[in-house]
User: What shape does this take?
Amino acid sequence: MASDMAHLRGKTACVGAAAWGCGEQPGWSSLEIMGQNARLALADAGLTIADVDGVWAATAVHAMPSMSLAEHLGIVPKYSSGSNIGGSSFMSHVLDAALHLDAGLIDVALIAYGSNQRTQGGFRSASEPVPFESQYDVRLPINAYALAAARYMHEFGATRAHLAEVAVAARGWASHNPEAFTRDPITVDDVLGARMISDPLGKLDCCLVTDGGGALVMVRADRAADHAKPIYLLGAGMAHDHRMISEMPTLTTTCAVEAGERAFAMAGMGPGDMQTVQLYDAFTINTVLFLEDLGFCAKGEGKDFVGGGHIAPGGGLPVNTNGGGLSCVHPGMYGLFVLIEAIRQCRGAAPGLQIPDATVSLAHGNGGVLSSQVTTIWGTADAL
Amino acid sequence: MGPEAQFKAYLADGKFMIQRSASTGRYVFYPRKFIPGTGEDDLEWVEAQGTGTVHSTTVNRRSPEKGGTFNVALIDLDEGVRMLSRVVGMAPEDVSIGLKVRATIGELHGEPAVMWEAA
Assistant: This one.
């Protein structure tokens, strides 16, 4: 039987969100940061720990994160999952939670993340050595994204200056966001002149390394109206097509194509309906690829689409309005923060620049080495 | 022994071997017991031609104290499969997409490793 997920449209909503401990949070463990976010998101939802019966979590340091979190909070869940597909795990948790809520297996879903990686010595990956690649001292994830960026530049005549526009736009948004970790405006020349790390990606083409955590609370739509600002899940879709960069079918096209098509189909919407677009920008090339693959522009045109301030404040399409992983926050796994910014924009409560009357936002997650792609679409009651 | 161990055993004997389906002639890398997706399991080991093209390339800007810069590249083998490796014998930043390369068996971390140099 062909799957038809369209019935999930608008059946669940986010009623609580928190992003706490972002930047530097010395002396706190990842679990404590995650736990604090869970409490804040529940308070935001007007709910308590005792109301939660579904728990999702993924981190770079816990083998069984949903059990660690549930124990820390004192929850005995009816369902929990620590499924990890990299930075997009949290979008997949949203889809998973929506299915469990809609099926009536649970009533209140908690999705959380926490990391102290910045104050604990820098980037830390949960990844195991990969067969047939690790022997070459491949530096992951950055080498993989650099290989994709180099190939993109070769195929489509893009330059490092094209990619730099992504970083400049992200910093432009961040400069208005008091929660952003880096706020000093930068220029294309700053990006081009930054220390090279893995050609063609320099330091300012790469995401931040911060501490931070976040949490979301989701309920069924029939309960959502009891809450102050429910933001409904209108669409979600996922796909992944490789684990290692040497196995990626086409370096310049991600399976955000399939994930986006599925999410748009569920929502009954298209790219033109998105009032804000939040994309997992671990590196500048990500934003270019995902804008193309999600249908905001044609393949190969992303390099020009991101230029001229088009995705910067005051431009034609608000992209990564918090400053993104490049300039706002990136504590190892950034996916939950992508979701939180999309939801805050729909609530009219963005910490930085608020897009006026935003009722629909897209939050797209990426995991691994351009591997897992999960698209979600959120909207207010007006968008139902 | 599994396909990964078999590959390494061949390499230790100085042979760069990859797999090919006897019925369809399709090659697969990295080594498996079947071709992913389609499932042909009639794979036989054949010596790689050892010729290919750089599909993409990057330079790891490692500090001199940690060993210095080195190349990481994706190589499209003429058999139609891709592998991640290094191009050696030239400056890492001079490796370019489209460069024709040939395989050489070198050593990394005390173990034999397939690497590539300009053809």
In short: Chain A has twelve helices and eleven strands. Chain A touches chain B at residues 131-133, 135-139, 143, 146-148, 150-151, 154, 195-201, 244-247, 251 (CB under 8 Å). Chain A has a mean pLDDT of 96.
